């Protein structure tokens, strides 16, 4: 599983609508409204790198109100939770 952290700059007047639209995209597991240099952070979890192209530039960046994004791909997860098992239920 590939995890990407997507930092999103959004139209300030549309942040709630933008966040909700992004949260509905397949492959997006969470969207956070945050303080700082970006407005939203989306967690994207997909099977392969090619899927990132479908989700991020193909869908996230095309949501009306998204002004730009910066994507960070995770190399390794350090967690007490077994994320791989949580996201692989029912999938081969």
Automatic annotation (TrEMBL):
<dbReference type="InterPro" id="IPR019887">
    <property type="entry name" value="Tscrpt_reg_AsnC/Lrp_C"/>
</dbReference>
<dbReference type="InterPro" id="IPR011008">
    <property type="entry name" value="Dimeric_a/b-barrel"/>
</dbReference>
<feature type="domain" description="Transcription regulator AsnC/Lrp ligand binding">
    <location>
        <begin position="6"/>
        <end position="75"/>
    </location>
</feature>
<dbReference type="Pfam" id="PF01037">
    <property type="entry name" value="AsnC_trans_reg"/>
</dbReference>
<protein>
    <submittedName>
        <fullName>AsnC family protein</fullName>
    </submittedName>
</protein>
